[in-house]
Amino acid sequence: DHNISLESMGVTVNAVAGALKAFFADLPDPLVPYSLHQELLETSKIMDKTERLHELKEIVKKFHPVNYDVFRYIITHLNRVSQQYKTNYMTADNLSICFWPTLMRPDFENREFLSTTKIHQSVIETFIQQCQFFF
Questions:
Q1: pTM for this structure?
Q2: Contact, 120 vs 41, CB < 8 A?
Q3: Residues 82-133 pLDDT 10s
Q4: I need a labelling partner for 56 at 20 to 30 A (CA). Which of 6, 8, 32, 81 fits?
Q5: What is the mean pLDDT of the chain?
């Protein structure tokens, strides 16, 4: 219901963001499928920006249709939030730091994974920054 005003109900932005992150954390599988994580990592190493963006777009097309629709919605929303960074201080970088672990649900116990956390974060940042290209 787009007529509901959470602000008038006293619900803070942090509470909404926390609820959203909790929702994604409780899904049986992450929104960004595990099966595509390695491919995303490899694509992020492509030096040519245009080629990298096109490859990322092809990977997103491999998402299950429901995951794709939800990912498109959340990334587009995060892009809108990032456009207000002068007011909310939430740049695409800040948002990707907050949301990549929830959207990708990495294995923090895996030592190999720890070396790729910045790459995962930068992939989500790219999706936020370039959402008009991807969607």
A1: 0.88
A2: yes
A3: 999 999 999 999 999 999 999 998 766 666 655 667 888 999 999 999 999 9
A4: 81
A5: 91
Give the integer Cα–Cα distance in Å for 126 and 92: 8
In a domain, 64, yes or no: yes
**CA–CA distance, 61 with 94 (Å, rounded to integer):** 25
One-letter amino acid of 100: W
> DSSP state, 33?
-
CA dihedral 30, 92, 117, 99 (to 10 degrees): -30
Give the structural domain span for 22.
6-133
* Whether the Cβ atoms of residue 13 and residue 89 lie closer than 8 Å to each other: no
Contact partners, residue 12, CB within 8 Å, separation at least 6: none
Q: CATH number of the domain that 16 lies in?
A: 1.10.555.10
Cβ atoms of 16 and 7 within 8 Å: the answer is no
pLDDT of residue 10: 87
Torsion, Cα 133 101 68 11, to 10 degrees, reads -90
DSSP 116: T
